[in-house]
Design brief:
With about 90 residues, the chain is mainly α. It has a domain of about 55 residues. Helices cover about 40% and strands about 0% of the residues. The chain contains 3 helices and no strands. The longest helix has 17 residues. The chain is rod-shaped and about 95 Å long. The termini are far apart.
Length: about 90
């Protein structure tokens, strides 16, 4: 499915006052985008970008979950040595 998003991004970066809105493509999403007309060119650009973004991501499978972090090997707590007989630990 060809996307008109790069052309819309270019028009958004240049500005709708200095660049004309790109003509939507002939595919189904382009035809739907061609029907979107707002009072101002910026509103039309944003609405068309929203439609094309939704169409591009609809039905997309989510990314697989990240693997769990690897933990360092468990270290056992060392028992304190017993005090020599005849001395006290205080």
């Amino acid at each position: 499915m060809p996307s008109d998003l790069p052309a819309l991004l270019s028009a958004a970066l240049i500005g709708t006052e200095r660049a004309p809105l790109p003509t939507p493509g002939p595919d189904a999403t382009g035809q739907a985008a061609a029907r979107i007309n707002r009072d101002d060119p910026a509103g039309t650009l944003l609405a068309r970008a929203a439609l094309l973004t939704l169409a591009a991501t609809a039905g997309r499978q989510p990314d697989p979950p990240a693997p769990p972090p690897t933990l360092p090997p468990a270290t056992r707590a060392r028992k304190p040595r017993p005090a020599p007989r005849g001395t006290s630990r205080t």
